[in-house]
Amino acid sequence: MLIWVIRRDLLLAMRRQADVLTTLFFFIIVVSLFPLGVGPEMNTLRIMAPGIVWVAALLASMLSLGRMFSNDYLDGTLEQILLSPTSLSLLVLGKMFSHWLITGVPLVLMAPVLGIQYDLPFSALAVLTLSLLLGTPILSLIGAIGAALTLGLRGGGVLVSLLVLPLYIPVLIFGAGAVEASVAGLGFDAHFSLLGAFLLVSLVFAPWATAASLRISME
Amino acid sequence: MLQGNNLECVRGDRVLFSGINFSIEPGELMQVRGPNGSGKTSLLRMLCGLTVPSSGEISWNGSSIRSLGEDYFSVITYLGHLSGVKDDLTAIENLRITSALAGVAIDEKIAYEILQKMGLEERETLLAKVLSQGQKRRVALARLLLVDTKLWILDEPLTALDVSAIELIKNIIEQYLAQGGMVILTTHQEIDIRATVTHQLYLS
């Protein structure tokens, strides 16, 4: 059942590539504008890089949250998902996973290329990519709760950022922190452990919370 | 057996309906009637468990549908106002995915046959956005031929359908009732469906 939801969402994303590309281009453009604005000061750029890439990833991932459930809501598919004999948390987990595949993975793949603009050493690029690989699934998982709560509301887009951004802060701190530690030549294991812990906790609670929020929003 | 006890629906500070009682046995049909805005869709959404009644209780074989949860969803099929057909998927993909969600995974060959029965020959691989309203409705209704549930809850199943499609749906419902299924439906069209017992529920 999980496979069907993922397959369906990937198929829909392929038919509507504009939606996927918007997120990716947003990320690329935001990250690329900073070196142009700040100027070619290598040391400044190296210090700024982790924060900028992570903030851009946060915003890019948020950009696509609105679409996570709203299309299904508008054409009635969400009702069918809610009435499925399969556990709603499981189906929601499928939607979160496909959201990550569609919006998170391209960011992870693009990040090392963009990092070169900031003169990051190879080791820091690797840490940046790994931290995004661990962190972006958390963004999809937590974001889904906000998307489900604001479903069908007017001005839901603003509301979802107010709800979700504060919850993203720990991910931002430890994700960017890992890269900063690596640039400074310090150990970054602790950051990764904490990111991993966040991922596990949200993997357990987010599908359940999203399923409950969806049931409330559909009443 | 589905039973409704003293159901009430409140929207804002307006009472849409209250004191609704009914009971349906296998093979029986219930038609919900009433003018626009009388709460037909609200009642149907309540009966399939999407919303909770403001007061009263709905029970399936004696136990509350709230407590049954997903066990209840596996015995009902709901077709709402919104047909749940994705514009960016083909008719065949739509049918395969919605029936998979309903717990019946089918292969492409069966999906083709079902769509042909629904009068959609040579439309199977077209994206749903190029289909007409009536054809989309047929895609949504095709699911009825696949699922193995005991209760169908159909909200205006006949909108946008032509005469031959209405006849087809009527036959499908009659056959299902004859096999011991239960059907609850709303419609504004006059349609004469044969059933052992037909309940009429008027909302005003």
CATH architecture group name of the largest domain in chain B: 3-Layer(aba) Sandwich
Terminal CA distance of chain B reads 25 Å
Rounded radius of gyration of chain B (Å): 17 Å
Figure out the total of helices of chain A: 9
Order of helices and strands of chain B: EEEHEEHHEHHHEHEE
The string of secondary-structure elements of chain A, in order, is HHHHHHHHH
Number of domains of chain B: 2
What spatial order of strands do you see in the largest sheet of chain B? 6-7-8-3-9
Which residues of chain A form runs of ≥5 with pLDDT under 50? Answer: none
Oligomer: heterodimer
Mean pLDDT level of chain B: 89
Helix share bin of chain B: 25-40%
Describe the main β-sheet of chain A briefly: none
Structurally, the number of domains of chain A stands at 1
Q: What would the principal axes of the Cα set say about the shape of chain B?
A: globular
Fraction of helical residues of chain A? over 70%
Q: What gross morphology of chain A would you assign? A: elongated
The counted number of beta strands of chain B is 9
Could you explain the architecture of this structure?
The complex is a heterodimer of chains A (219) and B (204). Chain A has 219 residues and is mainly α. Chain A is 84% helix and 0% strand. Chain A contains 9 helices and no strands. Chain A has helices spanning 2-15, 17-38, 42-63, 67-74, 77-82, 88-115, 122-149, 156-183, 189-217. In chain A, α2 packs parallel to α6. The radius of gyration of chain A is 18 Å and the shape is elongated. Chain B has 2 domains: 1-75 and 151-204, P-loop containing nucleotide triphosphate hydrolases (Rossmann fold, 3-Layer(aba) Sandwich), CATH 3.40.50.300; 85-148, no CATH class. Chain B contains 7 helices and 9 strands, in the order βββαββααβαααβαββ. In chain B, the strands form 2 sheets. A 5-stranded parallel beta sheet of chain B has the order 6-7-8-3-9, with helices on both faces. In chain B, strands 2-1-4-5 form a 4-stranded antiparallel beta sheet. In chain B, α4 (91-101) crosses α5 (108-117). The A-B interface holds A 1, 4-5, 7-8, 11-12, 15-16, 74-77, 79-88, 91, 218-219 and B 48-52, 70-71, 73-74, 76, 78, 80-89, 93, 97-98, 100-103, 105, 127.
